[in-house]
Amino acid sequence: MNYKDTLQAVDTLKALSVLGIESIQNGAYIFIDCPNCTQKAAIKAYGDKKNLFYCPSCKSSGHIISLVMKTKGIDWKEANEFLSSKALNEIAKKITEELNINYELVYNDFIKCKGISEDMCHFLEIGVPKGKTMLAGCVAFAVRDEEGKKVAYYGIKMKDEKAVFHKSFNPELYLYNFCNLDRKEIVYFTTNIFRCVKEIEAQQQCVCNFGLPYLSPFQIELLQDIERIVFMVDEPLVKTLAIQLAQYQRGFYRFEH
Length: 257
Fold this sequence. Notes:
Elements: H1 3-9, H2 12-18, E1 24-26, E2 29-33, E3 40-44, E4 52-54, E5 61-63, H3 64-72, H4 76-86, E6 105-106, H5 109-113, H6 118-124, E7 126-129, E8 138-144, E9 150-157, E10 163-165, E11 187-190, H7 193-201, E12 206-208, H8 217-223, E13 228-232, H9 235-246, E14 252-256
Parallel strand pairs: 11-12, 11-13, 13-14
Antiparallel strand pairs: 1-2, 2-3, 3-4, 4-5, 6-7, 7-8, 8-9, 9-10
Helix pairs in contact: 3-4
């Protein structure tokens, strides 16, 4: 594989694991110890710039192949072969089976402080799971596909609001609350899932892309049949999303903060 193919084909977490590099994931980004200083560098796990890393402290940058070269002390060809044999990503697939897990979800003060009512949490299946689960200490959100089938839970840690989800759930393949939309009416879009729920409670149609700093091709495809979309995103994301949407221009788009 060439350089670009390798970057897209390699599973970031799998590659870091086989290299023995500790990592912490937050949405589309994975944080690792910078190979050139003692601070944290961020490496992307999804998107066009997948497997590129950058350290804001020492300003160094690179990619997963150069990281293998430095860690293993091997050349580019050997690093490429190493990744191809040990860390290729499985083809992203949508979950086809209904999720057979039903957490006992609790409404608490953290959720209340986000401006979300207990009735809305019950309606959308949101809350803090009881017992020992992978989403312990998180606010869990039931995720449904475009047909309304529950396929996963997506979690936000109450401690630091970092995202947590099982590796079988690929956020690029879904939009939160998409199954409940009337596509002929205005739809609001946000990257913040708490804001999404608040908008829904305010009787606005709203979807969320689970905090990803871009729209995946599949998410853009889902949005194509919606006549009017209002993007409620932070300033740094406006240009990124506008460029993406310009390639698929249909209907009406508006940005607001």
